[in-house]
Amino acid sequence: MSGKTEASSGAAENKDYQRLVELLAEVTALRQSGGLLFWDQQTYMPKAGARARGNHLAVLSKVAHEKFTAPEIGRLLERLRDWEETLPYDSDEASTVRVARREYEKATRLPPDLVVRHSRARTRAHEAWIEARQKNDYKVFRPALGEMVDIMREVADALGYEDHPLDALLDQQEPGMKTADMEGLFGELRQGLVPLVKAIAEKADAVDDSFLHQPFDRETQMEVCREAAAAVGFDLETRGRIDLSVHPFTIGFSRNDVRFTVRIDEGFFNAGFFASLHEAGHGTYMQGLPERFEQSILHEGASSGLHESQSRLWENIVGRSRAFWQFYYPRLQKRFPEQLGKVSREDFYRAVNKVEPSFIRVEADEVTYNLHIMVRFELEKAVFDRELGLDDLPGAWNEKFRNYLGITPPDDLRGCIQDIHWTFGFGGGFAGYTIGNVASVQLYEKALEEHPGLEEEFAQGEFSNLLRWMNENVHAHGAKFGPQELLERVTGRPLDAGPYLAYIKRKFSDIYGL
Amino acid sequence: MSGKTEASSGAAENKDYQRLVELLAEVTALRQSGGLLFWDQQTYMPKAGARARGNHLAVLSKVAHEKFTAPEIGRLLERLRDWEETLPYDSDEASTVRVARREYEKATRLPPDLVVRHSRARTRAHEAWIEARQKNDYKVFRPALGEMVDIMREVADALGYEDHPLDALLDQQEPGMKTADMEGLFGELRQGLVPLVKAIAEKADAVDDSFLHQPFDRETQMEVCREAAAAVGFDLETRGRIDLSVHPFTIGFSRNDVRFTVRIDEGFFNAGFFASLHEAGHGTYMQGLPERFEQSILHEGASSGLHESQSRLWENIVGRSRAFWQFYYPRLQKRFPEQLGKVSREDFYRAVNKVEPSFIRVEADEVTYNLHIMVRFELEKAVFDRELGLDDLPGAWNEKFRNYLGITPPDDLRGCIQDIHWTFGFGGGFAGYTIGNVASVQLYEKALEEHPGLEEEFAQGEFSNLLRWMNENVHAHGAKFGPQELLERVTGRPLDAGPYLAYIKRKFSDIYGL
Asked: Against a cut of 0.90, is the pTM above it?
């Protein structure tokens, strides 16, 4: 009899564990309900419903927090310590208790007063950010950002950390990931990417993507988005849907109800199509979570970064590959004969991979994207280390852009007030994007070892072996493991920039003839 | 200084009242959140999401119940008794305490065990009902219905009543309404309607509605539904929306986010159009609730029946009037020139008012509709009085149909298993439909006294005086008063079949030349 089976049969008899699972299921249900309210707010809610929706979301999150931090959960977790140690680390039961304990400790370490002040600071920061954007002036945002930074220092202190306050914040998104890990990662990326960006900039004209910037009918684009998402394995039939919203996002209320949104730009093909593949990637992660986790605290991805690894995998490694367009380009040409009838497949492939240093992160290409994240990470750390004052933030931002990307943002809108993230918090909120990019290649190459024919399959429109590999190796674990743990288990090593840099260099040296 | 103002300024100082309002706002938010989950389930939810959605709804309703029946609410209500008596009965404060106490007492009188058994019985009844419908056989539903009847007897006993167990059940839908009231009402209706139905049946051929049964394009029908709902004053711009679902319904998550659904029948004009006016009527009630009630327990209609008075008002009294079609028929003809180009306005008016005894309640016309309800009410009462055994229900149903409508249902599907209501409970669940029909005329005639030119206004497409009157006299009170109380306040008398019967006789004697 395996340890797993023993543990499972023990679980049925452990009343404390059963009760814990029952209580956590309520918390999960409240959170997933809040998720639907958010989805509706972004898609179908009549405008005037906003105020009541804000109240509803606040109540759901308050009640979920109350339920999750209830003393009974604390007592159960204490009583389960001994039992947990008899179980295999990766069993459902041990993982449930472990993850619940980690989250419970975080949630109960934050004094309610701080949670309330954080929430108020978010509201103020959001308002100030909106106004700052309207006026294209960082100074309008500066006071609210100062308040946010102070609160995030308090949050970090309350959560606790060993080495650096950012560790505490980073751990909320990427359990187990350290600031030092991120610094090592960015160090390698800086070394590999900055010279590559320079080399490509000298050959900027080698790739022409002007035909992507022409009118593409909205309805047809939407059909193409649906077709491509379904082709790579996002279940749109009975377990998912796609809608429109201003900012694309993916959300799931269970593995059997996963929805994403896209934004269609009638003058630019990439905006809708690659958002669809990106969000479909997140969607496959959620749809791939095990059925038995449905009401469990494990019914989540490993981290923001691991989630992003799946979206970047399908958006970039698959969606911007020659093999993918071998399959899909003839279909796309049939949909847009006027726009693409005379564009060769190779020219199209090159165009969707055009590299161009730019100011706006969400529009960045595969090569420059991580430099955008690096700028934010380094600035956050400098602020936390009190090496950079907030008054000097725009100047520091622009200087880093010059150094890494060779361009200078002409104003704050195209500089340090472009992202919404600093209205939620400050510190660690961007790391997941780079972790995702790096992990996507690390995971893909492992999949490729086991299925060397993947690219030939893509060229035939066959993606199920790759998806199944991700299902079995990544999605199947839900939130059992942190990102480093999961990568080590699956690829034999923690997050490693090597495969990513090699992939980027190989791909873009080819495209740009370096 | 008025009593109202004194009370209001007192409220700000009464800490117990403030706390009660705060706790009730959480309950309201949880219920309204559940409402959105239900709406989504009926409109956009991917099919496979059903199981998780069921869990989410169960948790939300459990948590709302826990919060509402919390001992703290009981203590606050006790402590507020003396204060409440110093306040004007109709003040917001006294009404909030009064309605909260009434609902709290009901909610706490039901033993948790009974609530759970009722909920399970619903699930079983629903499954049995579905199967019974598939097999067109009441006997399949019979055992589950028996269980439901037993449970509803227990519910009635737990809630308590003075005269008849049905009073307790009726009071849940129609606060303050008694079984004896309903019997009196149906007595008058029976006397007035049964002979009228017979007289009309003899002139059945006087009205031809065959042109309503031809193909009407789905999209155009939907546009017409939207246009008509907006014309009568349902705010679709920023505070509402219309979607499609299998069964039309209206739901609000606040007065500023009210949604209804319609079902379009491509072969029959009435199904979509009058559902839209009907649901728009419910919608105007919700949108007409006072802003200051938004998070309050008063943010509801007075009762199911009063709600129905608003839907029937716009569907029938307005929507099936000559004046309405004077305004709208030319517009409709433009939308459907092939179908209606050669049909005169008068013929159209007569067609949408065709009276025809039929088996299915939801398809019944204005004259026969209440007879459908009467059948159900009388059967429920006979079962509660142990005068009718459940084995004999189909026979009794069919006999009543013969007596009142002159037709005999050919099978159970077109007989006693057509409605879903007995899967939720048994007793009092249909009364609101008839209360609504009767109250709609009573209210309308009062409005007409104050605005004698209403019909001329309808003919011009002007509905705002009627809507404003309903806003001020009905909607403005939210859930402060029960249906009888509200009708007395507004019209000077309780529910009264007289105006309704006079309206029906006048209208249909004219149409059928009686």
From this structure: yes
